[in-house]
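On clarity, I found the account of how folds are encoded harder to follow than it need be. Since the whole study asks how a given chain folds, the encoding of that fold should be made plain. For illustration, here is how one protein appears when written out as sequence plus structure tokens:
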Amino acid sequence: MAVNLPSSSLLLPLIFLFLIFITVNGQHFTIPESTIEEIQQAFAENKLTSTQLVDFYITQIKTLNPLLHSIIEVNPDARDQAKNADEERRENQGRRSLGDLHGIPVLLKDTIGTKDKLNTSAGSYALVGSVVARDASVVEKLRKAGAVIMGKASLSEWYKFRSLSHVPNGWCARSGQGVNPYLVTGDPCGSSSGSAISVAANMVAVSLGTETHSSIICPSDHNSVVGLKPTVGLTSRAGVIPVAPSLDTIGPVTRTVSDAVRVLDVIVGFDPRDYEATQRAAKFIPAGGYKQFLNPNGLKGKILGIVRNPFLKSLNESIFPIFEHHLNTLRERGATVVDNLEIANINTIVDPSRSGELTLVMAEFKLSLNDYLKDLITSPVWSLADIIAFNKNNPDLEKNKEYGQDTFIAAEKTNGIGEKERKAIELMEKLSQNGFEKLMMENNLDAMVTPGSGATSVLAIGGYPGITVPAGYDINGMPFGICFGGLKDTEIKLIEIAYDFEQATMMRKPPLLESFQMTPEFLSGSL
């Protein structure tokens, strides 16, 4: 069901975290900011039920979503799923572990397919009413783990690929303009904006996002949450609306590193529906999963390379001393810090039009999207050309007059993977080998460390993993994170590093939404 509230409810004074605690059997449990581990402990001690948890998040969504525009639909079956989880827990009586995500509400980016009452629309009215053939593979894994599918998160519509130059970060037709919960004028970034906003504002326990180029790392960085971009192929893309299969990956957006790792453990693995990519990456999944690498001494002995240029230049100067303090923390925790490293050809790498990335993505988008649409049971549109026509025929519905669809139109003109696209692939590989990979190997690095989210271009073109951890707030209150990036299949090292850093710094703070101005424009999502 869509989240709709009577306008009178919007005039109530905003109290962030509407319910501070839940009382079950006379026991109190504080829900806001609680981790998966804490929630599971509360389940085990009968301080909390999954139904109570879902009810809390529904209240949060009713209170905050008219302000933040981060959730498109709430699953009408979420409460029933929570009741089923509670019943399974009662019947189990602690005889066996039900798993970390059992009974945990999970929000999905609105490009991750669900075979239920929810739409999968990429934030666009063009796909409303379409019916997927089956759950996305990551959703199948979540359901098997006992997770509650809470609903669909907003995003930069069509991954912002409708118009890279005109569509604002976090805007989609179905939910309006996503709002950064820390700063009303702050950029929520994208495209997984709704996933990050909702987790940051305690509207859900954890969420899933997708990344092709910065779409997990950037919104997580900007909204003071943890975003984990896995190596391409570690998580299946089957059943997810694609951008470019060469670069697409699915990953968790959470408030803590430990939560991100617990979600990762559930969604990784080989999938015959995404055969080639997942077969290669599955070989590197550790026996026993990634949770065992939540090491409070994970920085000890690690060699970290600090890349400042050009990433520090784009950030507010007020964070510079905070960043320097964090570098000292890395040293104090036992890491060797190699500072002021440079990536060869970095100015080319960070420009998708020069690196070959945009050329490849344009062609792959048309091909892969058309294939995805053909697999639907029913749909209002069956091709990229149909979507372009839908937008032209519905200019007000899709704000086509304001934002256009120039990138869509350019992608429609492509004709598969030809000589130009093959050269683009070769260029991206060469830039990665001579740039990031050379930097890592020549300096014997375990991870590259960068402030903010600017290094996502480096990670994107090579399919490399990265994780961003909240690192502080600038003088205006805008969040920023520190990103740890690694070579393919080095999630173990990145988890150890990120977890130790997080535990040593604990920089995340929940947003204080009381200060938001509830103007008509703000409430309508048209900022």
